[in-house]
Write the structure tokens for this entry.
Amino acid sequence: MAKSLLKLSDLSKAEVRAFLNKADQLKFEQKNGIKHKILEGKTLAMIFSKASTRTRVSFEVGMYQLGGHALFLSANDLQIGRGEPVEDTARVMFRYVDGIMIRTFKQQEVEDLAEFSGLPVINGLTDYAHPCQALADLMTIREQFAYLEGLNACFMGDGGNNTCNSFIVGCVLSDMNITVGCPKGYEPHPDVLKWAGDKVKISHDPKEAVKNADVVYTDVWASMGQEDQRKIRLEALKDYQVNMDLLKLASPDVIVQHCLPAHRGEELTAEVFDKHAKVIFDEAENRLHIQKAIMAILMG
Ligand code: CP
Ligand code: NVA
């Protein structure tokens, strides 16, 4: 098993399945009042350079439920925010804690933190990837359909964002078919396209992309750090909104996924959100169970 979770393409198919299976088990145990102190006495440092609701709360609650302690560290209040090298921060962390979760901009910072700390490092979102989210998405899809292999997934919207990059890799590692519906210039990261090869389909026609989809996934059109390009991005992506008309082309049993936070009236309509809210909030809940599985496996 990998030592850290930096990006999903570092994992094998069996490792992805191990995270999903562990999360299912921990969810069942939590719902049935079975307590487990797998991480008793252990500490997770959580470094945030961007805002968060789900990631922050689910890691903190998850760590508590596993018997350990989570430390919230805003990058603004750490010396790293004033230019202390990541190498030095990593070496110091190694002396204090048992694992690090980090949400930041550059993927390289996460990779460096893992290399220099020698600790299990969990990527809680970078501009490039959101692996914890993709694992929670796969867990949710498997709960709905009971299997993943052969399902048709469609990511609609900003194909180049972190959530889409990781979802593509997660689908390929789960033997799902994945199509990305996005405008020209909003395709997934070149490294992801190279890694996935002909296993990912890119379509610039939203109607073609959504055809027969069992899962339709969307995310915001302007991610954190892209606020200054918001107007341009909203204009470029407006034909890729997930609305009721578009969903008519998907499978009759389609489920809609959104990592949240959602912008109703932009990447999806309020009507679509409300109709699919149950599964979207299951997906948010599953962040807790998957984070617990990740920590139990990497830090246990
Ligand atoms: N989906 C997700 O990562 O949510 P937060 O930004 O609230 O953590
Ligand atoms: N793509 C979004 C995901 C938020 C969880 C962002 O990076 O802002």
In short: Residues 277-299 form the longest helix (23 residues). DSSP finds twelve helices and nine strands in the chain. The CA atoms of residues 219 and 258 lie 6 Å apart.
